[in-house]
Amino acid sequence: MIPSLYLNGRKIGPDQPPYIIAEMSANHNGSLLRAFKTIEMAKKAGADAIKMQSYTPDTLTLDFDTPDFQIKDGLWAGKTLYQLYKEAQTPFEWHKPLFDKARETGITLFSSPFDFTSVDLLEDLNAPAYKIASFEAIDLPLIAYVAKTGKPMIISTGMANLDEITHAVDTARSHGCKELILLHCISAYPAPASQCHLRTIADLSRRFNVISGLSDHTLGSTVSIAAVALGASVIEKHVTLSRNDPGPDAAFSLEPIELASLCKKTKIAWEALGKAGYEIKDTEKSNLQFRRSLYACKKIHKGENFTAQNIRSVRPGFGLAPKHYEVVLGAKASQNIEPGTALTWGMLRKEKNK
Questions:
Q1: Which ranges of the chain have pLDDT less than 70?
Q2: Which residue ranges does the chain devote to CATH 3.90.1210.10?
Q3: Residues near 26 by beta carbon (within 8 Å), at least 6 away in sequence
Q4: Which CATH superfamily is domain 10-273 in?
Q5: Helix (H) or strand (E) run with residue 327 in it
């Protein structure tokens, strides 16, 4: 049985509505006020948490413009790694105001740390959980350092093969992590739906006995909704106040109305899952009367045989079930029966086995 966990009082697991994480990432566009508004927007839209990233360009890369450090393809082509991370960083001095704002707003805030110093900063701010980004899933020393905090950990698995995921999970657990979530992820920006292979989500849960979910970089919310239908307990999705505003991640992020729709539709998808069963559902009971049953379609006199000409299987369902049709045929009527009368066992002179 897949274990559940609690994050700031919210239970997360297969028996709960999906936990929605709004990833702000770099979509604050260098404005603390915009970051505050994004927190407020995520709360209003119905997200359970908002996530940021904790790094400086110097903790992620080196300031070189040699070919190794240049981005040649995709949304960020033409930049060096250092330039991208300098533009996209959430300054460390913003972290406390952002945590204070989230608490004031009533939404959970946590972050992806990228080195030991960012973990230390987040610990000082009493971060409730940690997210390991896909690109850092192979950084076992970082995973071990985060695991030692004893906080819940979420690991994205983009680009990681099965051996690398296994090493990450084993490292987390062996260094004290008892509450672990794995997010299936395709590390492309945006990611094509055809390459998402969402059945991996359930496989992660079975293989590693963890809560699993999806870090979704596709356009729109269709893939996230499908993921919930396939068992995802957590959905992470990039968000922005407006895609018209410049920002490193804006092109594949959801706007406020879209985030609200995602929160609503993923919950509906989860509610629709229910459990396997064949009992009559409460909402169906009033329609039982409209199923077929056996009725007299002509006047039948006492002692007359029931025949295909004087009884029929029709709607509504107040008479004998159609499965008794062959039993009734050939029996004799115990009374006069008017057309349009629902047949009962008492109307047969010799009651047959039911």
A1: 350-354
A2: 282-347
A3: 53, 87, 88, 89, 90, 247, 248, 249
A4: Aldolase class I (3.20.20.70)
A5: helix 325-328
